[in-house]
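Take a sample.
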Amino acid sequence: MRRAYEFAYDPEVVTIGPFHYKKERQELLTVTEQHKIQFLFRSPYMHSQTSDEKEVRLGKLAEEMKKLEERTRCCYSEAFADICSDDFVRMMVLDGCLILHLFHCWDHNRQFYQEFASGSLLRERWIVPAIGMDLVKLENQLPFFVLQKLYQLTRPIDNEQSLLTLASEFLQSLSLKAEKLPTESYPQHLLALYHSMFEPLTGSRPSHGTQKSSDQEFLIPRAKELIYHGIQIRKGNEQRLLEIKHGKPYLLEIPPLFIDNNIGSILRNLVAYEQCFRDVQPYFTSYIVFLHG
């Protein structure tokens, strides 16, 4: 999958997590480590503090991330021995705080945060959607518990929104629209959260941790095969992407989908996520197999 379409899996404007950590230093990405530092110090958590207070607060973030370093490393398929402990912790702080800053600035209901986007790279009209695309690439993830801990440490007292709500509202802005609230309370990462927002309303959902049965395998007929056997397929009115419905006898209604490079990239990463984790329902894999002619 990856060899044929590397562009779909590689971050284009910002690296998150260890897989492409070295790429940030080797290539001219739009969002550099220096930008991440600027976003951190522009955040409400840091903005009004003195230099000494900022150092103390930064040290606190690093200290808490250090406690999570081993657990975080275990979430990845590689050991990343070439990234020393200090650099790994620094990456956790900067990448996590960048994501939180982006979510806050996106939240239009809190004008307070809008002030902290002014004068920054986030004012560019194209940059936020571009970062959003990179945040749902499988190799560009931080564990959600890292984001949750940073959120607990940095959010103002008067902010009662959960991180799950902030993240979901942001993800609903992506070009492939998710039409429902997430079903996952403790997602692995942002891509897992995004995936859960597409779960079809019809059908049953296995409890967390149950594996797909290897004893039962179902052959998914492709759309062309159904048409060949007399099934009519037409555009449905349902907005939820995966809600393929039986209408009248011998009729399937499929929600419309316009595929461009961005949506193609999102679909590939959702499929890759399903293929990497046995306990994830393969909704998008089935969807692509069905559509493929």
About this structure: The first helix runs from residue 6 to 9. The chain is about 50% helix and 5% strand. Residues 6-174 form one domain. Strands lie at 232-235, 245-246, 251-254.
